[in-house]
Amino acid sequence: RKEVEQDPGPFNVPEGATVAFNCTYSNSASQSFFWYRQDCRKEPKLLMSVYSSGNEDGRFTAQLNRASQYISLLIRDSKLSDSATYLCVVNPDSSYKLIFGSGTRLLVRP
Amino acid sequence: EPEVTQTPSHQVTQMGQEVILRCVPISNHLYFYWYRQILGQKVEFLVSFYNNEISEKSEIFDDQFSVERPDGSNFTLKIRSTKLEDSAMYFCASRLGLAGGAGELFFGEGSRLTVL
Fold it and tell me: Quick one: closest CA in A to B101, which residue?
């Protein structure tokens, strides 16, 4: 099993759509979890941390299920500017030796 | 807004040459990192650095790689004798690392290394 696994996509959705991405991780002892966004040939940028209780930031909602080792990201009311690759990222311990998924590509069309 | 800066943005080198990639982390941050991303592949951890020494390194970070913090601001990655497979985008990152807080990892814009 890959350390962090994501559907590569692409997800091609119209503006205004709701889209959900999923991610699974293999190390049950992992400490913290994140969604990063990466535009083409740019650096990863933190979108949001993911907490067991679920957390929301505007149009973005992240969820963590430790029992299933599963992380999700929901984007509501998609904008053209949301087009990017979304990286599921796991921190296995306190070291921040982050483990990145391969990313899910999102294309939002007019 | 404070940011991590990296130079050069792009370097082309011949196989076997030495390369130094430079980074200026955010000034009050304590933890420093190098990651790399081969084109079309995922971001991979190379090395972490704290208190003037390497904290952890990955299998990728072999004897050809070294890191240094020569002064109070710069954090460098040296590749002693580049190979074709070293061609990648190299990202520097830093983290404040306060006790009791996870702290966000801030990435620089990357240095693209092309080995011919």
Answer: A94
